[in-house]
Amino acid sequence: MSERIEMEENGLFLTIEVTEEKDVRLLHFDHSPLTEDLAESQKNVRRLVEVQVSGENQNDHHSMKHTGTMPGARLIFVRHDLFNTAVGKRLKIIMKDEKSLLNVTWHAQFYNDIPIIRTWTELGNEGGSTLGIEYVSSFASTGVGEVTEAQDMMLYLPHNTWYGEGNWKACTLKEMGYYPVNDFSMKRIHVTNTGTWSSSEFAPVGILEKMSSSNTLFWQIEHNGSWHWEISDIKKMLYLQCSGPSEAENHWWKSLHPGEHFSTVPVAAGVVEGGMQDALQSLTNYRRAIRRDNWDNKKLPVIFNDYMNCLFGDPTTEKLLPLIDAAAEAGCEIYCIDCGWYADGKWWDEVGEWYPSTVRFPGGITEVIDKIKKRDMIPGLWLEIEVMGINSKIAANVPDDWFFCRHGRRVIDHSRYQLDFRNLEVRKYATGVVERLVNEYDIGYIKMDYNINAGIGTEIKADSFGDGLLEHNRAYLTWLDYIFQKFPDLIIENCGSGGMRMDYALLQRHSVQSTSDQTDYIKNGIIAASSATLVTPEQAAVWSYPLKDAEFEAVAFNMINSMLVRIHQSGELSQINSTAFDLIKEAIACYKEIRAVIPMAEPVWPTGIPNWDDAWMSFGLIYDSHLYLAIWRIHGEESSFTIPLDSIQNKEVDIQLKYPVEADINWERGVKEKNNIIVNIPTKYSARLLEIEIF
To answer: pTM, whole model, 2 decimals?
Structure first.
C-alpha cells in the first residue's frame, strides 16, 4: 500500500506519495488541497528531485529538458523527518539510489504565516566510486498546469539590463512559443544566468498565473552566481524546475567523491489564490523574514552619495567640503564618498590597494571624514573588494591562484581581475581592507560595488569552471557573514553596476541594494516605481539627483522617485538654486515623517507594474489605515488619470497632498466606481505624493 505525507501550512497544501515500491512523488503543491484522483501515468513522473549522474541513462525523449534523469528516477524512500524551527516547520525527505549508493535529502523549510517554502537538495556519496553530478534540482513540481492550458498560463518575467532594471513583461506560454503540438514537447521556456552578475539579463524570480482560476505560482532562486529554471511538459502536464548551475547551461559539473556531500542553492516557491501582486506581497513578507536582523532596515537613514550627476568619481577635499555641508543642511544622515578616493588619476584599472590619494586629499582623507562626522553624518566609502585592476601593484605581486583562471591564464574583464574568495589569503586581504576602513578611518557605511562579469568560472582547484564559480560564490557569502559578525553595525550597500547583482543570497545579508545606475531621472522613476517587486522597499536605494539648475517639477519628480523606498541622494547640492534646495529639504523632512512604516508596509501598484511605455504610473505603500501613494505623469497627453484602489472600496477616505505641499494637483473620488480616485496633474513629467487615510 502507498502512503502519503500531507501538510497544510500557512495556506500551502503539500502532498507527497510514497508507493509500495518506495517511489517518491510530489503529487501536489498548491493553495488548496488535492481533490482529484490522478492516474498512475501522471503520478509516476512527478519526481520530487531530478538528478543526473555522468554515465547514467537520461531515460526520456527530452532534448535539453531536465526530465528522465538517472538516478533521479530510481530514488527510493528511506524516511521523512518533520520538526519545528524558529521560523516554521521543516520537512526532510531522505531517499537513496541502491545502485549508485547516492543519498538524496530534499529539504523544505516553511515560514510562519507566509505561503512559501524554501527548498534545497543535499547529495551524499555513500558508495565506493566517484559520481559525476551534471544536474540536480532544488525545486521541481510537475502538474502546475495542463499542456492544453498554454494560452491560459501567463508568465511574468523581470527583464534586467544596466540602466533598465526591473522591466517586467507578461506573455502567455503560447505567446512565448510553447504549443502543444504532440503528446509532449521538446520546447521549454527557460531562463538561465551564467557568471558573477546574478541578474544581468533577468532577475532570479518568476511568476506563473493561471488566469482562468487566479492561481499563481512564483519562485525565487537565491544565488549570487549561475542559475537556471525551466517550464515545459511531461505526460501532458506542465512542470517547473529550478536549480543552481548545471553542466548543460552553466559549465558546472561536480565530482562527488566517496563520503562527500553537496547542497544545491536554495529556491523559494509559493502559490497564492490571486494574481501577480498577491505573489509579490508574499515575496515581500518572505524577504523580510529571511533577512539578517539589522538596525539600518529599521531606521532607514538618508544616504548622500557624491557620484551620480555630481562628482562622478572625482572627489577632492576642495569639492567635498561644501558638498558635505550641503548634504547635512538638506537632512542627510550618511555621506558616502564614491569611487576615485584611492587613485591620483585614473581610478578604474588600478583598484586593489585601497589607500587614500594624497593628491586628492593633501590634508589626508581624515580631514573630510572628520567634517562628515562633525556634521552628524555617518562617513562612508566606495569599495570594490572582489576585483583588482590589471594595473594594480598588488595584482602583479601575488600568485595566479588569487584570481579566476581559465586555460592557464588569468581571466580579465573590463580591465579587472576577479579575486577568488576560496583562497584564504584573498579573504585575509579583503578582511584587512575592511578593518582598516572601519578602525582607522571610522567608516560606518561601505558602498560595495561590483562592475564586471567574470564569466563561467575558474579552473583552479575545481572540477569544472562552474564548480569553481559556485564555490567562490559561497566563499564570498561566508566572508560577508564574518564581516557582519565582526562589525554588526556596519552598513554595506550591495551594488553591481546598479542592479546587476540583485539576489537574495546577497540581500539576506546586505541592508541596502542599489537599484540602478540610470542617470536620467524620468527613466529612473520607472525603475524606482517597480523596484519593490525585486527588493523590499526598505532595502531599495533609489537615486535622487536634481541638477543644479533644476526647476520645480524636476526636483519633485527626482525626490518622489525615492521617497517610498530608500533615499539615495546626490546632485550638486552645494551649487543648486535655493528654490530647488528647499524642495529637497522638504522631501527629506517628509520622508523622515513616514519612514518608520516603510519596513512594515505592503507595496501596491494600483495601475499595474510600471512599463517603459507607460504615460502614467503609480506605486504605493499601505500600512494600517494609511496609504502613501506616489503618482507620476510622464508623457501622458491627458491631464487626468484614474487610479483604482481596492483598499478604499466602501470606505470613507481623507486625501492630502503630502509632497510637494505647494504643487498643482486636483483629485476626486469616482462617482460610480467608489474604489477609484481621479487625479489631475496639469503638466507632463511631474510627480506627486499623496497620503490617503482610510476610515
So the answer is: 0.97
